[in-house]
């Protein structure tokens, strides 16, 4: 996401680097470039206008001319203004004083509501909540089944107008979404679920009937949060769709879905500003864990290729076994006893994190290495795993003892080639050396192991 916008902005700033002073003409040229980059990324025109005007005004002020490094100061201003249009602050979910907290999802069909229902409920469950999903999308024949599948994967119960699930507790008429929503919330209260997430129907385009139904559901269940889910790929339509939902149903927050696609990012950069509602979550893939709290400041950093190390760390904490991670960090920090067996454990933990590509993309400056990143083969990790598995425990502890014939044997055993085995051993040795050096220098260890 944001790739081309990010490239354009970093290229613009590169032109400024090293300049002692910036003339008004320099600043105007920079602002023009920024405007073009934003428009090409499908950011709504009024948002672009306001953004560039603010950047220009600040860039011409004493804030920049008096600075030691004017170019850096301009980047800082753009960063701050980006944070601003993305909503300024992180806006957490607000929970009801009296349970259950009711969260209603709204948006067009295909926006990613059902997927989000699963992701959000999993995240809440991991935080110790006891969410219930309610299937009030009775428009699509498949929707109830789809929500049940997602709920099962998230390990969360679902309340659906299925004869089997309905039981004696309800007498919901199938086809009455308002009734299902209302009864679902009552059911949650009764069964002491502390959060209830109500999935509603979407249509392919904004229409009156859909809006009315969503508004009726809203009126029936008085949700604490109404989350408007919007596909980040819809580009220029984002503003019109968001405005229609704002008027028709109103919402308390926005969820951007499919941010993993090569969306140009315009929706993300327009919606918060145009609707005045905060972006609260980002959906970044088809897996239930591809889900993040939306932090305007971190997103701005990613757009400016300054990295998002905080999100990376949080995701790592979620996936890693804390004790094991601590032990590993110790070994890495001292540069001692780091064996191929440790390397394997680390690889396996990394794999739990999901896509290596996505993770690496959060490191600062990775925008410059996008091509290598695109070519990164996720299966490489599997190959390395297979190679290490084919070694004896003694070899894993001390790879120096692996001679030529053992290398050939390991290659055969792992279904790889001797070259692949050699490469891994070389890389491991280099990584080990680097770790020892870092340990001596007391520097921060980066990503041990050296990425393939
Ligand atoms: P709904 O009609 O709003 O409930 O949308 P769904 O949740 O059914 O999602 C529509 C399609 O988009 C499905 O194929 C999902 O797998 C896919 N999808 C949803 N969220 C994401 C996301 O964040 N990234 C990607 N790549 N696909 C997504």
Could you provide a short overview of the structure?
The protein has 452 residues and is of the alpha/beta class. It has 22 helices and eight strands.
Major beta-sheet overview: 8 strands, mixed
Instruction: Please state the CA-atom Rg, rounded to the nearest Å.
Output: 26 Å
The pLDDT mean sits at: 84
Bound molecules: guanosine-5'-diphosphate
Text of the CATH class of the largest domain: Alpha Beta
Oligomer: single chain
Shape, please?
Answer: flat
Summed up, the helix count is 22
CATH architecture annotation of the largest domain: 3-Layer(aba) Sandwich
Strand content: 5-15%
The computed structural class is alpha/beta
Overall tally of structural domains: 3
- Strand/helix succession: HHHHHEHEHEHHEHEHEHEEHHHHHHHHHH
At the fourth CATH level, what is the homologous superfamily of the largest domain? Answer: P-loop containing nucleotide triphosphate hydrolases
The CA-CA distance between the termini, in Å, is 23 Å
User: Quick one: how many beta strands?
Assistant: 8
Strand order of the largest sheet: 3-2-4-1-5-6-7-8
Poorly predicted regions: 163-173, 442-452
CATH topology of the largest domain: Rossmann fold
Helical residues, percent: 55-70%
């Amino acid at each position: 996401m944001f790739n081309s916008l990010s490239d354009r902005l970093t290229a613009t700033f590169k032109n400024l680097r090293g300049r002692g002073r910036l003339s008004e003409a320099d600043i105007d040229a920079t602002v023009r470039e920024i405007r073009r980059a934003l428009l090409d990324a499908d950011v709504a025109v009024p948002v672009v206008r306001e953004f560039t005007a603010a950047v220009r005004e600040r860039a011409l002020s004493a804030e920049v001319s008096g600075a030691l490094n004017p170019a850096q100061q301009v980047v800082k201003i753009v960063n701050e203004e980006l944070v601003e249009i993305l909503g300024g602050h992180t806006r957490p979910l607000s929970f009801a004083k009296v349970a259950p907290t009711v969260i209603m999802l709204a948006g067009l069909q295909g926006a990613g509501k059902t997927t989000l229902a699963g992701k959000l409920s999993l995240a809440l469950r991991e935080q110790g909540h006891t969410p219930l999903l309610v299937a009030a999308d009775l428009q699509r024949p498949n929707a109830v089944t789809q929500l049940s599948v997602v709920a099962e994967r998230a390990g969360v119960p679902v309340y659906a107008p299925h004869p089997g699930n309905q039981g004696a507790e309800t007498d919901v008429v199938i086809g009455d979404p308002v009734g299902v929503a209302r009864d679902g919330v009552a059911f949650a209260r009764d069964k002491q679920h502390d959060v209830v997430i109500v999935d509603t129907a979407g249509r392919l385009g904004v229409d009156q009937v859909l809006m009315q139904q969503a508004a009726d559901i809203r009126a029936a269940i008085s949700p604490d949060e109404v989350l408007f889910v919007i596909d980040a790929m819809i580009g220029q339509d984002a503003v019109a769709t968001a405005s229609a939902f704002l008027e028709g149903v109103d919402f308390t927050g926005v969820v951007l879905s499919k941010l993993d696609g090569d969306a140009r990012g315009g929706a993300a950069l327009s919606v918060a500003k145009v609707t005045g509602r905060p972006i609260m979550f980002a959906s970044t893939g088809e897996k239930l864990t591809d889900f993040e709290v939306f932090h305007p400041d971190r997103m701005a950093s990613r757009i400016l290729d300054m990295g998002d190390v905080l999100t990376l760390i949080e995701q790592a904490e979620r996936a890693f076994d804390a004790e094991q991670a601590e032990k590993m960090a110790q070994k890495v920090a001292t540069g001692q006893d780091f064996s191929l067996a440790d390397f394997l454990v680390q690889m396996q933990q990394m794999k739990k994190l999901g896509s290596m590509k996505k993770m690496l993309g959060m490191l600062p400056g990775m925008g410059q290495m996008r091509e290598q990143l695109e070519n990164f083969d996720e299966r490489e990790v599997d190959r390395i795993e297979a190679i290490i598995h084919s070694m004896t425990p003694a070899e894993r502890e001390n790879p120096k003892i692996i001679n030529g014939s053992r290398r050939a044997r390991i290659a055969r055993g792992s279904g790889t080639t001797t070259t692949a085995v050699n490469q891994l051993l070389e890389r491991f040795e280099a990584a080990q050396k680097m770790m020892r050096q870092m340990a001596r220098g007391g520097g921060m260890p980066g990503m041990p192991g050296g990425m393939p």
